[in-house]
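Exercise 7. Given the components listed, write out the predicted structure of the assembled complex. Treat all entries as one system.
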Amino acid sequence: MPGTYIPSEYLPVLIFIIIATAFGFGALIIGTVFRLKKPYYEKLLPYESGIDPKGEPRTRFAVRFYIIAMLFVVFDVEAIFIYPWAIVFDKIGIFAFIEMVLFIVILLVGYIYAWKKEAFQWD
Amino acid sequence: MIQQLFFIYFAFAITGLSLLVVTRKNPVHSVLWMLLLFFHIASLYLFLNAEFMAAIQVIVYAGGILVLFLFVVLLMNIREELRIGKYIGAGPTGFTFAAALLVVVFMSLRSFVAAPPGIYSIDLIKKETHTMVLGKLMYTEFLYPFEITSLILLVAIIGAIVLAKRRLKT
Amino acid sequence: MVPLSWYMLLSIIVFAIGVFGFLARRNVIIMFMSIELMLNAVNINLIALSHYLQDMRGQILAFFVIAVAAAEAAIGLAIIIALFRNKATAHVDEIKEMQG
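Answer.
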């Protein structure tokens, strides 16, 4: 009967999440209750090996980081498509193998394009 | 009873978190609330007996797309973002449009008639495991959409490189 | 038991919040996150219908929605980076070259 399903095998995960959250917040709360609070200017400065900090802490990343992140997302989805394929591979047989080879070859074209455009170059 | 309690918790949490996502001034906070939102949506999928969908919700959205968002948020000037107003001049119009859409779709919800149920009952999915059922359907009946998806991903790779990469020095 | 209409109502509410965020926010990245929110609302609806109608095809469609969402995120954020490089802004109301 739909609507009455309970994922009971995930109960340990729920218990884990509850304990982890309680532990994290509990540690913070106990720390705030018991610790001394005497902040002054030098203590609140970011620590830079004893030297006074200067300039913006936030610097812009180079664009190649973003290109790597975008390619990661795309190939992440490709990997997601391979999981169910690996499960059903022996049920469907050689046909499933051919379609997955086609899928990977099409994405390999993109990979070679990225390589030729020097998207992976680091200098 | 316990299903209803869980659903009510998830419904209120998802609604509240999505409101937090669209109303926070600091984009970093928005991204972090969205991370929590995606985990709640993934847990909701578990209650719909779709554990593989829950897994890819966490892997693709929380693990891939949100990291990309966080990267791009770090590109911009947060200090200027906190200074300037968060809504554009057409904001009230957008709110009215969204509220009208909510009301219209809510009214049309009452005329929904469910189709007769198919063969994929909870027992069948439990017996065969969810990923197996999904994969069997995906790699036989949905063969063409699957191959077309690879073309969409190819377009995404090429488009991202063309748009984001500087021209090669010639 | 939880009726199907509860899930559909939740999906509608999240979708409307996404529409509001897309139309009202100034920041381009928040607008993109609103699009992801709308796609997630549609996914909730698809998977709930798939569960209640006992048909897996809805989940396959949700699978493809997630794949397209990833492609859209990659392209969209590449557009934002190109925008940053050319205009050094992330605000939609400062991009008005195309206005007549």
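Discussion: The radius of gyration of chain B is 21 Å. Chain B touches chain C through 82 residues (CB under 8 Å).
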